[in-house]
Specification:
alpha+beta; 6-stranded mixed beta sheet
């Protein structure tokens, strides 16, 4: 991750990028003290696999322009669930039905969760 951007700025920028591609049901999970591999999860939903790809591509493309590169990416082969790992911030872009099936909200129910209102 780029040295001069803090986690809060990165989280806010990712939220903006998700919203720019009409991602919805956005939640930020504060995992500090609960997980050693990340401080935040950002989860959002999309209606179709093309929207999942559009959201993930927008995040990756714009953050790269700003000097922030992902450590790991996965899920591009099926586009039901794309994960972008920025070390302390992990982004999950789900197709709605896949998100319902995996229910990360329940799995990480001990985390402080902030819901971002849909903008449309």
């Amino acid at each position: 991750m780029k040295e001069d951007i803090n986690e809060d700025e990165l989280v806010n920028r990712i939220i903006e990028l998700i919203q720019s591609k009409k991602g919805f049901d956005i939640k930020i999970f504060n995992l500090r003290g609960l997980a050693s591999f990340a401080d935040y999860f950002i989860i959002c939903s999309a209606d179709a696999d093309v929207q999942v790809k559009a959201i993930a591509d927008e995040i990756d493309k714009e953050l790269r322009k700003e000097g922030v590169k992902s450590y790991h990416r996965e899920g591009y082969n099926t586009l039901n669930w794309v994960l972008l790992d920025y070390f302390d911030v992990v982004v999950h872009v789900f197709k709605k039905d896949t998100r319902d099936f995996y229910n990360l909200e329940k799995l990480w129910g001990d985390a402080e969760i902030k819901e971002i209102p849909n903008e449309f």
